[in-house]
Write the structure tokens for this entry.
Amino acid sequence: MPTLGADMSVGILSSWLKKPGDTVQRGDIIAVVHTDKADVEVETFASGVIERMLVEPGSEVPVGTPLAVIRESGEAEPTAASEQEARLMISPSARELAHELGVDPAEVRGSGPGGRIQRKDVEAAAAARDPARPPPSAPRPAVAPQAPAAAPSADDRGAAMRRAIGAAMSRSKREIPHFYLGHTIDLSRAMSWLTESNVHRSVSERLLHGVLLLKAVALALRVVPELNATWQGDEVVRHDDVNIGVAIALRGGGLVAPAIRHTDELSLDELMHAFRDLVTRARRYSLRSSEISAPTITVTSLGERTVDTVFGVIFPPQVAIVGFGAVVERLWVSDGQVLPCPVVSVSLSADHRVTDGHRASAFLVALDRLLQEPEEL
């Protein structure tokens, strides 16, 4: 079960899209998982043959729990004994204790991460089998299997999403020392170039100015790469891939922020296509697990709501979020003349554990410079 949100601890397996014996390639969609925010398509990260499914549809499953077993290409088919061994997740000391106590590990319910069997689970199984035998240590009572959890109804999705967003944002403000910077960028050249460029495109292929902003953010991260990172444990981890999460408002309320992978490597036309596709699928509650888990930074915009400035709250475990307001006409001094110009206000919310005002300012300066050369994006 993949992690599909900062505070996600469980997900509901809605359905399998493959069956045992099917051949799959890395990236194939094999299942659909229901979360508070969306029904997410789960991709496989291995190529091979599906040996068996470990979870039934409708089951509520903790993050990290194996969902299926895939025999990779070239791997020998398992025997019955090795198949049972592969199914069990048991610590070496727990396996040794099970042998000493005469407990069959296949009959033990694990309480560790992903259902891993630990010593206390073996002790509990031995005590349950023979109450007269004193366990080596006080066992933790075995947990009775629970009936599969049903997916929440459509009426409950909005409330569940608000709870999920609230939990993530509360964690963000509680754990991340935010600081904020703002800047106003002259978009005269960018908007003129966009108008001229769209003349040669059909209506369905025309670029939106938001695509220029996304590409400029992606390229600015090459100048200040420490913002393209996540905070894991007690340290920052920088990422080579620039996967920008795009905050998308949903029609029923709430929002999601799935990633456009390798944003810096896409042409503007490719980026426009990817953006349209992502928005369409997000509003159908149909996103892929890699899109939910991949963002290395997020961009949010309230320009369509005519908001001038937005200061975002960082999505954990990311370390920054960029906010854009509406493109508006303002009197602007250019080459010694005061002229009406299209401008946009941009904000940066950043994690002070990772960067500081000097480096964050360098990011905004790079962003401004890139938008003055739209033909190079």
User: Anything to note?
Assistant: DSSP finds nine helices and 19 strands in the chain.
